[in-house]
């Protein structure tokens, strides 16, 4: 038996996929957002942006950047962009180069999320499984030295729970496009969507359970409850469900309402001056 010399076919799931954002690029996008906050106080953290991105990816209707980026980084007003033309400069960005770099990094993360959510996976430890950009801030702070913690702003707001900011970003998108997230008529599909959204909403709440694990450093001090870790896993599967349900249903079809038919003795709407029964209503 001779060994085949044919090259294996490229895996369509990995072909032509841009590399995922690495630590340096994630730090870069954090720095861009920090700079944006010098011109707009409402600019969110990257974790919030990543949750928002996931929701837009899962939305029933394809939403264009000209519509969703102003909602995330601007005043919410959709940008007017001619077909094939680049996005105009959003006020929060310092210049066109900064916006272009942000969009480049954003697009790479977008493509990665789409690829992960469309992959056939059945366990969370599969390297192809979608992983939200969620950070265990409580674990990060608990892992600091006493001197480092003393240098932190004591007036800082309460440290968010693991996955909380990501979930708030996801639900921010859902709440701003309610028509696109309205329950469909199909009762089974509607139940799937409601259950999935409930799993994500659960992460927007504070983790009040007993700290048992550290998601920031496996050897770090406990900062997150086991129940929270399980809820985070359920939220990941919920994103898969939302993606698949909306894809199977397709965009919402707008039904045209038929104009009420005039009475037989009313003037005919064609403008002839005759009664409807003597004109287009005859026969």
UniProtKB/TrEMBL annotation:
Coiled coil: none annotated. It holds the Pfam family UPF0149. Residues 1-10 have a biased composition (Basic and acidic residues). SUPFAM superfamilies: Sec-C motif (SSF103642), YgfB-like (SSF101327). Residues 1-22 are annotated as: Disordered. NCBIfam families: ygfB_yecA (TIGR02292). This is Zinc chelation protein SecC. It comes from Acidovorax soli.
């Amino acid at each position: 038996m001779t060994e085949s010399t044919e090259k294996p076919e490229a895996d369509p799931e990995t072909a032509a996929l841009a590399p995922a954002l690495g630590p340096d690029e994630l730090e870069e996008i954090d720095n861009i957002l920090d700079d944006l906050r010098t011109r707009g106080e409402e600019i969110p953290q990257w974790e919030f942006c990543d949750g928002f991105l996931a929701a837009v990816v899962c939305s029933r209707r394809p939403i264009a950047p000209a519509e969703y980026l102003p909602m995330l980084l601007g005043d919410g007003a959709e940008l007017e962009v001619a077909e094939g033309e680049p996005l105009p400069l959003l006020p929060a960005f310092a210049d066109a180069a900064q916006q272009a770099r942000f969009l480049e990094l954003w697009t790479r993360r977008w493509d990665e999320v789409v690829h992960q959510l469309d992959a056939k996976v059945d366990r969370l430890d599969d390297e192809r499984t979608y992983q939200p950009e969620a950070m265990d801030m409580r674990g990060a702070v608990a892992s600091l030295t006493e001197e480092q913690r003393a240098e932190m702003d004591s007036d800082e707001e309460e440290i968010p729970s693991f996955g909380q900011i990501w979930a708030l970003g996801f639900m921010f998108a859902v709440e701003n496009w309610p028509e696109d997230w309205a329950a469909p008529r199909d009762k089974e599909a509607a139940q799937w969507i409601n259950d999935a959204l409930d799993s994500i909403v659960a992460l927007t709440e504070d983790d009040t359970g007993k700290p048992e694990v550290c998601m920031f450093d496996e050897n770090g001090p406990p900062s997150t409850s086991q129940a929270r870790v399980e809820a985070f896993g359920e939220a990941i599967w919920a994103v898969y469900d939302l993606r698949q349900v909306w894809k199977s249903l397709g965009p919402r079809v707008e039904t045209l309402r038929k104009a009420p038919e005039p009475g037989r003795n009313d003037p005919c709407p064609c403008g002839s001056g005759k009664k409807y029964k003597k004109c287009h209503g005859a026969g």
